[in-house]
């Protein structure tokens, strides 16, 4: 895997990898180096350990780099030690993993190490149901529950739900056992003296598995897979919301617009009608012009169209404000009337009560 050094100003570099194996043809160690332009360099070492049942008992890796991802140096790595269940039929189930890792610009020492422990629990069918991660603190004491991961399975050993530090995901399947929908939510919880007091979970995002060829998510995002036979050759990322029946969108490019003749006058009329329809929800007609001046714009009180603040006296302004939807008996209307009365008394007509009550002006 040797390549020539790149020319100046171009990406690439010279890389070298080497591997060694034990008498049972298991990977025992690996090393690699990288040398690029502008004194960029990186290297790694990897060592593996096994027991007489071919289970991985240790894995240790160290990586160092200079000027590759950023200016300066980086030393990162981990040292993993694995232990397994001892009961019959469970000897290949992980019991715990001791995880010592580091990431520093300096030479790694005990003070730069992060010492974690991962404990695994399974159900009667061998499905992973709980992972508890502990961490050894600087004073040598171990925090037993730094993070938690919980998993739930159905009677056919399909994953139903996953809770990873309060981030909850749920899964639904069709009659054939294919996963169809995934929803995720962020959990907010309250603890009093380390005891759970209450909380709520709101759906944050979801994934819809329409078919093996299409996966859709919230906001219209989708991934479309294209195959030749059983081999996937390309995946297309798209946005369903970018196109559709909304008349305000006019495609100017893409294969959807190939050979397409657009009547922009009709499109404009459709857009205008869409705006008018939207304004109907506010009980106010659209007068053909957006309010582009919130300070000195038109005072659109009820059915008075075209009047300006200069044409209204203090008394007239206040009377119109009272006749408008500030008089529907709600607390918000009372607040709007009070604010309109204050502004009229102060001679300030520049803002009517629409800024205090959502229905008044546009």
Number of strands: 16
> What kind of oligomer do you see?
single chain
As residue ranges, the low-confidence spans are: 243-248, 297-325, 347-362
Cα Rg: 33 Å
Q: What's the helix count?
A: 3
Q: Biggest β-sheet, characterized?
A: 16 strands, antiparallel
Rounded to the nearest angstrom, the distance between the terminal CA atoms is: 67 Å
> Largest sheet, order of strands side by side?
1-2-3-4-5-6-7-8-9-10-11-12-13-14-15-16
Strand residues, percent:
35-45%
Structural class: mainly beta
What is this structure's SSE topology?
Elements: E1 14-21, E2 27-35, E3 41-50, E4 56-66, E5 73-84, E6 94-104, E7 114-122, E8 128-136, E9 142-153, E10 159-164, E11 167-173, E12 179-192, E13 195-211, E14 214-217, E15 221-228, E16 231-239, H1 264-280, H2 314-323, H3 331-345
Antiparallel strand pairs: 1-2, 2-3, 3-4, 4-5, 5-6, 6-7, 7-8, 8-9, 9-10, 10-11, 11-12, 12-13, 13-14, 14-15, 15-16
Helix pairs in contact: 2-3
Protein name: YD repeat-containing protein
Written description of the protein model:
The chain is mainly β and 362 residues long. 12% of the residues lie in helices and 43% in strands. It has helices spanning 264-280, 314-323, 331-345, and strands at residues 14-21, 27-35, 41-50, 56-66, 73-84, 94-104, 114-122, 128-136, 142-153, 159-164, 167-173, 179-192, 195-211, 214-217, 221-228, 231-239. It is extended, with a radius of gyration of 33 Å.
Fill in the keyword field for this structure.
single chain, 362 residues, mainly beta, 16-stranded antiparallel sheet, 3 helices, 16 strands, 43% strand, disordered C terminus, YD repeat-containing protein
